[in-house]
Amino acid sequence: MSDSAAVEQLAGHRYFRPHDTPLQVFNRATDPFLPGVRDHLFAVLDDLDQRGLTNPVLVITRSHVDVRDCERLNALKNVKVTLLFTYSGIYDKRIESHPCRSSSRWGRHPRDSCPPR
Question: Contact, 25 vs 32, CB < 8 A?
Fold first, then answer.
């Protein structure tokens, strides 16, 4: 299924309430910020945002979120994205890139390490 078809199916679901239903994306079998998934994450977020939806969207990751990612997230005008960073002690950096600069900044808002909107 394409990213746009997935968003269309979501938006047309009888239990989906625009501007109200909390969403969580790419949470079943992968990390949304892995290189092969990142473009799909932003395609879905961009599509939701372009529809003018203001739903809260939770994105859970154990990957590194870089400045370009922050810029793209900050460019979203409508959806309310919350990033949740997890750490499970996996030593394979292909899976869990921590410790990294962003994970060592506990207590600081992610936008503090990103350029302003």
Answer: yes
Q: Answer left, alpha or beta for residue 38, where phi above 0 means left and psi between -120 and 50 means alpha.
A: alpha
Rounded mean pLDDT of 9-15? 97
Euclidean distance between CA atoms 56 and 60, whole angstroms? 13
Q: How confident is the model at residue 88 (pLDDT cuts 50, 70, 90)?
A: confident
SS3 82: strand
83 and 65 in contact (C-beta within 8 Å)?
A: yes
Residue where the block lists tokens 């239990």: 15
What is residue 6's three-state secondary structure?
Answer: helix
State pLDDT tens for residues 50-82. Answer: 999 999 999 999 888 889 999 999 999 999 999
